[in-house]
Amino acid sequence: LKMSWFWFYLPLHLLVMACLCHAIKAPTTSSRQSFKTDLFNFYHSLLLADGKETTVHLLKDIPKRYYFVLEEGRGLAPFTITVTPCDVPIEWSLLVHKASASFLGKAARGDHDTQEISKSQKAPSMVSTVFNFKGNSVETYMGLSPHSALYILEFLSTERDTHITVYLTTDTTSGHLFPELPSDPRLDVIGIGHTTVTLTWKHSPSVLQHKENTQYCLLVNEKHNYKSLCAAETAIRSSGMKLPPTLALSLSPYLLEPQQVMILSNSELSIISKASSGEVRQICMGTKNTYTVPNLSPSTQYYFDVFVVNLLTNASAAYTGTFARTLEEPEPKVMELKDGKVIQVVLDGKKQNFYNLQYQARHKKIQFTFQLCRGQVQVHITKNGKTVALENITGLKYFSLKGKFLDTYLVQLRSTEESNSSVKVQVSPSFHKPSFPLLPDSLKIKSFSKLRTCNSVTIAWLGTQEESKYCVYKKKIEEDQVWTELRSADRCSGPESRHKSEKVLCKYFYDVNLQRAVTTETIKGLDSGTLYLFDVYLFGSSGIPVRYHSKVVKTRKKC
């Protein structure tokens, strides 16, 4: 059993000549019209390749035809045709042209003679429909040809211009171009969260037999399911995005377009394609048949499609898609703020959730105070639903606001980095004596390089017009500890968290003239060539400490 390319040239014309002779002798008008139709179809058909996937472009309302020939061989001649619509529904039909079995077989081989042609001229040619289908799903026809025959495939798109893929094979003994689906090709949703959906599906026989050449790829979107990978890619392109040819080939980063983001982690490839119509996420996870889709939006319906992909041929088969709606985001917990009370809030940087504080004003003028302890924090304050402040804070920050009695203020706090952050918060009437000390213009500690010796360093810091207490602490550190110490320092913690041996001194000072509100201190008794971390704590009248920015200084090695 094989395809005969020679049939395209001499044998087909012989067959047409035979049909023509028969048509001349035909006594009825209907016979002549049938002949003309058959002849037109033959001349406007293309040869369909065997064992190869063919892409067919269709124009709206214009049929397109392909033909192939099966020769007479031993017993029945099996063949398979798979048609994959890549966009809109199409109509397609398989027709067979039956003629003299011996003539078709020998004509295909070129060993015919004049007597046989004469016999074939007397045998009426007949075209009959074997199979027809209308829709946008992948459809496979499996047939058996008991004799030599010429088959015609006719395709028609009535909605718009589109393209499809067609795969014909007469070799049913070798491996399949398309991966096989299990007997139950449905996706099962086994878990739904606020931002995750967990899916599972039965293994493809192709994955079990050829693990190294097959993988699963998942498509996630908010519009609808796709019946083929070809259809999904066409829809994504039409929405303004450009995709690599298939998910299987997307393993090459250079195939990505600017609208795409590729994430590779834990042997999983994710490609996120963005367009005005939404986001399409593609994940290839190897041969795992259970997967939890992360980073979804709460209370949103998503559609999930799984494709098993042959990495050698790039052909794919689609499981039956499913959909699921993520859970609604729970109402955020709101903590009530009380006048004058200081609270410390720890924010989870990984979850990026808002921490909510609420305050009902008992005075027209109020003041919010925020002291950043660690990390980076964004503060968003609304009054009766309207934004009155939105800012990333550093150090100590005051917001003085004016409103009406019983106005409701909502404070939302969020860490702006992945590590945890923390902040102290206080709200009080504007005339209330602040719990936090009056701060200088800068909380930096300065060291004097020229005054460094082998066993001492001199540091300086700014003070205020208000008499306050300042305590100095030191700590030996190694070179590789500098970044960690500076990064992890809790600027809200007081000296109570330090070891007693680290305390250097405490002193009081102030100056009415801010230009002169500067103090210096020389710390002696240090080791030569050693790194030291110096901290200064400022205490106000309320006793709440504010920590200056830590300073790392190294003593001279030789003096």
TrEMBL record:
GO biological process per UniProt: nervous system development
Signal peptide extent: 1-23
SMART domains in alphabetical order: FN3
The keyword Secreted is assigned to this record: yes
Annotated localization: Secreted
SUPFAM superfamilies: Fibronectin type III
Keyword tags: Glycoprotein, Neurogenesis, Repeat, Secreted, Signal
Keyword Transmembrane among UniProt keywords: no
GO CC annotations, alphabetized: extracellular region
Fibronectin type-III domain residues: 232-329
Protein name per Swiss-Prot or TrEMBL: Protein NDNF
UniProt gene name: Ndnf_1
InterPro entries named in the record: FN3_dom (IPR003961), FN3_sf (IPR036116), Ig-like_fold (IPR013783), NDNF (IPR019326), NDNF_C (IPR045805), NDNF_Fn(III)_1 (IPR055271), NDNF_N (IPR056225)
Main function: Secretory protein that plays a role in various cellular processes. Acts as a chemorepellent acting on gonadotropin-releasing hormone (GnRH) expressing neurons regulating their migration to the hypothalamus. Also promotes neuron migration, growth and survival as well as neurite outgrowth and is involved in the development of the olfactory system. May also act through the regulation of growth factors activity and downstream signaling. Also regulates extracellular matrix assembly and cell adhesiveness.
Organism: Geococcyx californianus (Greater roadrunner)
Primary localization class, coarse: secreted
Pfam annotation, one family: NDNF_N
Molecular function GO labels: heparin binding
